[in-house]
Amino acid sequence: MISLARAQELQAAGLRWQPAPGDRFALRTLEDQVFTISDMVVEPHDYPTGTVLGFNGTTEWALDSVAQEDAVWLPREDQLRDLLGGTFRSLARSTDGQYAVLIEYAGRPERLFTADAPEDAYAQALLALVTAAVGRV
């Protein structure tokens, strides 16, 4: 799973989330807990003022609902790869166990991002793209 710190970096860089079933997230006040959007437990409710994540039943004890902006999306490996879109070139594992994601975008030379887990390598590459898209590179 992507690290909470990397997920927070992506969020701060401007990555937006449309909550859907199967999505994982953490709350700023309960960062050691991971929640999953599910019709049975946590459902997104869209209002004119924003999206609220509603907790159903007693599974999540005292939680009733939280504003989406108080949640940090923890995208899965497949979601990260999908967000890279056409920039994604490859994922490989080196002999030392590191994962490497290769991307190419905007006519720039290919860039390689490495991490201990594939999700974090994908997230590093996505962070570079999101940052570049908002003009911070």
From TrEMBL:
<protein>
    <submittedName>
        <fullName>Pilus assembly protein CpaE</fullName>
    </submittedName>
</protein>
